[in-house]
Specification:
10 strands, single chain, disordered C terminus, 4-stranded antiparallel beta sheet, alpha+beta, 4 domains
Length: 354
């Protein structure tokens, strides 16, 4: 206990009930720190107080000293300011990336078309000083059926359905275009079920016709709807006709001067058996520039019998990967010339013959 007759020091006001309301938080902390120091000095001069009280006073002294050095709220304010700055920098970077993507994907579309809006062939594009769009409909775009020719898919909002048998072809021959369209709509509605497929529920077939090949050409309201119909093809096409399949597009390029033996084969004809292995190696070697890419088919443009190298057709499931390949393709530690694969100009594709 404190010695008898000793007087406790007068407090500065930080702990007084009446004055506390008139002080802001910083002033109250400062007053409390001053008061606790006065109390500790008084205890040190006058004797003893219970241990817990002394310990508590020391804790208050340390706490108020820390609060004076680091005012309450300053830490999180500083952290918030840093996060805000980081967010602003990331937003600017994202905006630049989006702009770059738009320039890479939208601008070439206009520069690669003729005055009438017709897509230029590879040879025409070269003469105009630009690269033709890496888009064509492959003969190997589907796992189980051939893909449609470019003339069959002249519009991005069209899709081609291959009927599974001759009975289906004969049956649709008896139907008018409006009836085929209505049948496709019914197949789509059946696939949506009780609202289980909102994507299919949002699209609509607006026209239809049967091609000379017997396949069905279906037109949707937009290219986006056509892509949705392809993605969800398994849900609705089975309701159109048993065994029917949607033909899938692919995008191809031609890689020139590919050494035959670098593919791990001795003869060009052995490429068919090595397609999967070569495709994986090609994607791996170009992962830094292509990103995630899927190769659907490999073939020689012209079989290079008796030659060390030849031109290799590479077909992708995405136009983005195909365009990346045109910009930069590396094989066997060599940067190779890569151009659009134009099936309509297959013979002219050989750069040694132009």
């Amino acid at each position: 206990m404190v010695a008898p007759g000793s007087q406790w020091p007068a407090l500065s006001g930080g702990l007084r009930e009446n004055s506390a309301a008139n002080l802001n938080t910083s002033d109250r902390v400062l007053s409390a720190n001053h008061d606790v120091q006065q109390l500790l000095e008084h205890v040190g001069k006058g004797g003893r107080v219970p241990g817990p009280v002394l310990k508590y006073l020391k804790v208050i002294q340390e706490l108020t000293a820390d609060l004076l050095k680091n005012p309450m709220g300053e830490d999180w304010k500083k952290e918030f300011a840093e996060l805000k700055t980081e967010l602003r920098e990331k937003t600017l970077t994202l905006q630049k990336d989006i702009h770059a993507i738009k320039v890479a994907t939208l601008a070439p579309a206009s520069s690669r078309s003729g005055p009438s809006g017709r897509v230029l062939s590879y040879v025409e594009a070269v003469r105009r000083g630009s690269t033709a769009p890496a888009h064509f409909l492959s003969a190997h775009g589907s796992n189980s059926t051939q893909a449609a020719s470019p003339s069959e898919l002249s519009k991005d909002r069209d899709i081609i359905v291959k009927l599974g048998d001759s009975d289906g072809i004969a049956h649709f021959r008896t139907m008018r275009s409006s009836e085929i369209k209505d049948r496709a709509e019914k197949a789509r509605v059946r696939a949506t079920g009780a609202g289980t497929n909102p994507v299919l529920a949002a699209i609509q077939f607006v026209a239809a016709r049967q091609l000379k090949s017997g396949d069905i050409s279906l037109t949707l309201k937009s290219a986006r709807d056509a892509e949705a119909a392809r993605v969800h093809r398994h849900a609705w096409v089975r309701h159109l006709w048993k065994g029917a399949e949607v033909r899938l597009p692919s995008w191809g390029v031609v890689i020139h001067d590919v050494n035959v033996r670098s593919l791990g084969i001795n003869r060009p004809t052995e490429l068919r058996e090595k397609q999967e292995a070569v495709s994986k190696q090609l994607v791996t070697q170009n992962l830094h520039s292509w990103g995630e890419a899927e190769i659907t088919h490999l073939a020689w443009l012209v079989l290079p019998e008796g030659k060390k190298a030849g031109s290799l057709i590479v077909e992708f499931s995405s136009p983005h990967a195909a365009n990346k390949a045109i910009d930069n393709t590396i094989w066997d530690s060599t940067v190779l010339t890569t151009v659009l694969y134009d099936r309509a100009a297959r013979i002219r594709q050989c750069h040694r013959c132009q």
